[in-house]
Amino acid sequence: MAELPADKKFFENLSGAGKAIGVLTSGGDAQGMNAAVRAVVRMGIYVEAKVYFIYEGYQGMVDGGDNIVEVSWESVSSILQVGGTVIGSARCKEFRTREGRLKAAFNLIQRGITNLCVIGGANLFREEWSGLLEELAQSGKIEEEAVKKYVYLNIVGMVGSIDNDFCGTDMTIGTDSALHRIIEVVDAIMTTAQSHQRTFVLEVMGRHCGYLALVSALACGADWVFIPEYPPEEGWEDQMCVKLSENRARKKRLNIIIVAEGAIDSHNKPITSEKVKDLVVQQLGFDTRVTILGHVQRGGTPSAFDRILASRMGVEAVLALLEATPDTPACVVSLSGNQAVRLPLMECVQMTQEVQKAMDERKFCEAVRLRGRYDTSNHTHLSALVDTELLCLPTNFNVAVLNVGAPAAGMNAAVRSAVRVGITEGHNMFAVIDGFEGFANGQIKEISWGDVGGWTGQGGSLLGTKRTLPAKYLEKIADQMRTNNINALMVIGGFEAYLGLLELSAAREKYDEFCVPMVMVPATVSNNVPGSDFSIGADTALNTITDTCDRIKQSASGTKRRVFIIETMGGYCGYLANMGGLAAGADAAYIFEEKFDIRELQANVEHLTEKMKTSIQRGLVLRNENSNENYTTDFIYQLYSEEGKGVFDCRKNVLGHMQQGGAPSPFDRNFGTKVSAKAVQWISKKLRETYRRGKVFANTEDSVCLLGMRRRNLIFQPVVELKDQADFVHRIPKEQWWLKLRPLMKILAKYKTSYDVSDSGQLEHVARHTALI
């Protein structure tokens, strides 16, 4: 081992040398579990710990033998994109008994395993550990010395559940992928339903938690949803049929009703998909079909979000084990906004049990409160977007909506939300065609509730969007705002949209027409807007990159020793390349924000050469399009091809505009819907505050804002104040949260042969940012 750096004690404390880590999956399978397993194995090996697979969950731990196997770096190659769990999961009644746990403890001690990464739960096992060892020693199965040596068992949990039913985390591993499966089915069904004017009743999983049903209903614009936490009021049958009938009368050719499998009515009686279908047929005579999605929701490849989430959690779990002390309670790694956090396992378990207790006692409001604010906000947004009876009194305010910049999946969901929430707030909503250029040319029209029906799942921008900035059209735009009496402006777009609002704000001294509330909602695949951690469209682009990389790697199956060089979009922002590399298991990702030179390129070639000597004979390298003006994609391809001669050959792909196309992901549909709704509510508030003598007059910095996601909060920030946070030359924020994940990607990709000084530098970076990883 190479000598550790100056802060030796810091690294000695984090070193895994001499430790053994067991990883197992328990309970139902969920997409992304393999990504977590991969991260635990590679991070464990990285810190020089021994890592063991425990096959078939707790049953394998009880049975021992070949069910507990030490693994290598290569053991988890090519599992990142595989659904389910490659190490198996099984229910084990025997582990629920002390005798079973005694067998499990013996099997672990035989291999020196005193650290467990569990996708499931095992706190009782931890509490009993010392007693179990003493009993094993008394029976002569282990030596007294082993009792002293392995006196403590450390456990860190990660939650894999497609239902998102665990308290303490915003998202569980597998939930986003399950939503992808549901939305794929809904999108397919909508085409056939429109052809025949049909009503479809979809039953989704969720025996005790209605998250999947509620969020998928929000993502697809469903007409009605039934979930366990919100039993419908008495008379719901007639209310639903009236709603469906009204929608059909408005020329809507299809109806979608989503039912969670655990849905109940106010008398605690089940509401089944068949019951809903029979009701619609009997009362309305509509052609109605039922689709029960079942285990298809658990299947398929994990989404980019789940791969990244699980990878972050797996790394964090190993760090938690390295830092654990005898007094440290068992913890669970959770997601809070874009942060990975550690929470006491039993506190989260207890809160989850309290939710079920509240449900059993019919205290539904309490159950929703315990689940967290997201369930409440989702239900509120859905009600506002599907129920026209929530209309406020007319305000006589005119609000214009436009898209600016390159198209991004989710823009249409954001426009739909803005229009419908604006109408429920009592405003007259106007759509501007083709951005600021269209605005100047008078391409503006009033848009109604029905005009945006079915927009949620549409890719691109149905309003039309251009990169043109307003500076050269200021007088014409002011004329159009005056002619149409526009009282507020909502701009949905990327960095150009931000620049556009800055220009309109600066023009207020000359044009009173611009003295109105203005708000921007970030929407760009590049995710490069200052003031927001996420932009609408970036998740869809990331999934496109990940899916494409999967297919490219698959195309080389059976082909020996091949490296793929992939160019991604993003301008100067490396978000897509970096996060795509993490999600697709890339060996390297070259980005503008982290300078690289020929020596690093050469080092990566040498790394791949070493890798090709193992059973892993494929390589993947991503490059952000503007990462370096000299080290172009062609240059890197030619360099790798030349240096790899006799060892591997190369192929290159430029993904191009396919990253901007396609149907939006569930995340982008819901993010666009929620952030847009909040933006319109802010406009309403500002209009009430600034209404004076029959006209709107707002000329303060806080009346021109960007609504961004910061960690887990949506925050309005004056666009002028964000100028200090922006690099205008390269059109990127000066600080970007995802850069702290760079070491994680490198650690999981780098083939481990020895521990050197550069390794310890990476470990320091990871350890000091555990709250961000």
UniProtKB/TrEMBL annotation:
Catalytic positions? 163 (proton acceptor)
Q: Which domain of life is it from?
A: Eukaryota
Specify the enzyme's EC class, one word: transferase
- Extract the Gene3D superfamilies matched here: 3.40.50.450, Phosphofructokinase domain
Question: According to the UniProt record, where is the region N-terminal catalytic PFK domain 1?
Answer: 1-387
Pathway assignment reads: Carbohydrate degradation; glycolysis; D-glyceraldehyde 3-phosphate and glycerone phosphate from D-glucose: step 3/4
Extract the Pfam families matched here: PFK
Q: Which reaction does it catalyse?
A: beta-D-fructose 6-phosphate + ATP = beta-D-fructose 1,6-bisphosphate + ADP + H(+)
**Where would I find the Phosphofructokinase domain in this sequence?**
21-320, 398-683
* Recorded family membership: Belongs to the phosphofructokinase type A (PFKA) family. ATP-dependent PFK group I subfamily. Eukaryotic two domain clade 'E' sub-subfamily.
The task this protein performs is described as: Catalyzes the phosphorylation of D-fructose 6-phosphate to fructose 1,6-bisphosphate by ATP, the first committing step of glycolysis.
UniProt protein name: ATP-dependent 6-phosphofructokinase
User: What organism is this sequence from?
Assistant: Gopherus agassizii
